[in-house]
Amino acid sequence: MFMQRIQYFVHTLSFQTFTYMIGSVFLILLLQVVVSVADNPGVCGLIASTSVNTMVYSEWICDESGQPVTSPCGDPLWRGLTCDNGIVTQIDLSNTDLVGTIPTSIGKLSDLLVLQLGQNLLDSTLPWEMGYLTKLITLDLHENDFFGYIFSNIGGMANLQLLLLNQNQLQGSIPSGLDELNGLTGLYLSENQFTNTLPDVSRLVNLEVFHASNNLFTGTVPSNLVTLSALRELLLGENQLRGQVPAVLGSLSTLELLYLNDCDLTGPIPTELDTLVSLRELFLLGNTLTGTVPTALGDLSSLQSLYLSMNGLWGSLPSELGRLPLTALVMDQNSLSGAIPTEWDALRLLFYDLSDNHLVSAFPASILNMPDLVVLGLRGNKISGIIPDGIGVLGNLLSFMTSDTGMGGPIPAGFGSISGLQFLLLNQNEHTGTIPVTLGGCSWMWQLNLDGNQLWGPVPETLNALTFVEFLSLDDNCLTGTIPETLGSCAGLQYLNLNGNSLRGPIPEALSMASKLVSLQLYTNRLTGSLPVALLSLTKLSYLDVHDNLLKGPLCLLDHDNLRHLDLSGNSFSGTLPSALTLTLGTVSLSSNPLSGTLPSAYGASPGLHNIDVANTFVGKLHASKAFFVSLH
User: Fold this and answer.
1) How far apart are alpha carbons 607 and 586 in whole angstroms?
2) I want to staple 604 with a disulfide (CB 3.0 to 4.6 A). Which of 361, 393, 440, 626 is the partner?
3) How far is CA 63 from CA 4, 9, 27, 28, in A?
């Protein structure tokens, strides 16, 4: 009867509630069984009540009397366990959607060598009893929701070799006992909330991997890391570290990864790093480093990724980098000058970004020999030449950024054959010709910015195929024709800028189908007709500017629920103003329209309104309870 009730209970649970119970209870049950099966006759009843034995771990079999039919170390072996002579030595429950806590009984597993609970949803503090696992070699708790502090008796885990605590919510200082774990080869502390200075690991002479990035550590990069002669990976980025990059790091001859990015480091890049012949990745971006890029970096014969962006580096680009096996060369947002060295033509890069410097150079046509190129960034430099016609051979390209470089010539139709292209930023240049209709083939496009060029002809109707595009900016060109109704099919469109052209005809009502539209800028064209009332259906629209067109008819959209900026000035709208405005409007411009009547006094009580321009329209009065700027020339 008892088992029948349990079965009924299980079947009546909702799936979400049931699976949550399985996850939260299972870890405790497993540990209870592993500690002592014979002394825990009630375990099978608990397992049956959650159906762990049948739906999660089928090897968990119990008889009618509530006793385990097989030993966890028997045949079949309970899944997730490894045994040695009938003793559980390893538990691997990683990535099994476990929820709940680690019980204090964990400390009774005195023969445990490996405990892997990573990539779950466990959310508790780490029990102090974990320090009793003195035989443990591997402790993997990464990617959970553990919080609180590391247990202070961790120094007693003398055999520990791998400690993975990354991607949790742990906090506080690292216990001093950590430096007693002389056998530790891998220490993973990244993506937590640890504070104070970095732990002293100089005595961990076997340490090969030290990850402590993305925490709240303060102080400097320790110079005594030089004692770690076996260190291969040193990741300390995204902390609050200050001071300089220690030149002694050049003594770590086995170092392969060095991440000191996004800290507050100052001073030059040490030339002493040139001895790191095994170094594959060097991340120094997001600091305040100054000086030149050392030519000595050209001696890092294994270097594949060099990230120096967002610093204060100046001087020329070292030609010596052209002899390295680089796949990522990222130096944007510095003050680097001169030309791109011709020696770099031999590089076969995936990521190539020199944006926002002071370079004066020809366009690097050698990119056509980089078939795996993913990102090209030259934005904000002075680059001469044109975009090569053969650009379509770069089939892996995701981002092409040459805006504000002064480049000219036509936009190659070959871009349209790169279906995965997501960012095409050619704005503020001198490109001429028409917009290629082939761009509709860039089906994954997110941002297409061609503004500030000398493009002419119509807006291609084929752009309606860009269903993922969020930002479409074609303003300040010489475009003619009408606004294609097909743009309403761009389901992801949020920002549409067509202002500063010579577009004619009405504003298509079909734009109301672009339901995610936030900003619509159509000003300074030759648009005619009335403002479509259908735009009221765009519930996310907050910015609408159609000034200086030939629009007419009655005013509308002044009661749009989300609109914050509305500019209807310089048209031929007529009629009177509505008695009240939408509560969200902050800036309204109605100047140079033949309106009649007066400015309603209720506008003075509109809570968000701070600027209303009715210049050259009429003069009215404002309610005394509201003070904001009003233009009444």
Assistant:
1) 9
2) 626
3) 14, 19, 21, 21
Q: Which residues contact 344 (CB under 8 A, 6 or more apart)?
A: 317, 319, 321, 322, 329, 364, 366
Under DSSP, is residue 60 helix (H, G, I), strand (E, B) or coil? coil
pTM equals 0.88
Residues 144-165: what's their mean pLDDT? 97
pLDDT of 12 > 70? The answer is no
What's the pLDDT at 627? 40
Residue 504 has pLDDT above 60, yes or no: yes
Q: Is the dihedral of CA 547, 553, 554, 556 positive or negative?
A: negative
**pLDDT at residue 609, as a whole number:** 78
Can you tell me which residue has the tokens 């089928």? 58
Query: Got the DSSP string for 69-98?
Result: SS-TTSSSPPTTEEEETTEEEEEE-TTS--
| Range 557-584 average pLDDT | 82
H or E element: which one contains 9? helix 2-12
Q: Would you say the C-alpha torsion 37, 41, 43, 49 has a positive or negative sign?
A: positive
**What does the alpha-carbon distance between residue 245 and residue 572 come to, in Å, rounded to a whole number?**
64
Per-residue pLDDT band at 173 (split at 50, 70, 90)? very high
* 57-71, 163-177, 187-201, 347-361: least confidently modelled range: 57-71
Distance CA(450)–CA(615), nearest Å, equals: 33
Distance between CA atoms of residues 109 and 36, nearest Å? 10
Q: What is the pLDDT of residues 37-81, one digit of tens each?
A: 333 332 233 233 223 333 445 555 656 665 656 677 777 777 778
**Length of the chain (residues):** 633
For 82, other C-beta atoms within 10 Å of its C-beta total 14
What's the CA gap between 578 and 594, in Å, rounded? 15
Quickly tell me which residue has 């050698």 as its tokens. 366
Percent of the chain as helix, strand, coil, to the nearest 5: 20, 25, 55
- Phi/psi for 181 (5° steps) reads -85, 75
A 10 A CB-CB count for 548 gives 19
Contact by Cβ (8 Å): 531, 546: yes
Write the Ramachandran bin of 378: left for phi over 0, alpha for psi from -120 to 50, otherwise beta: alpha
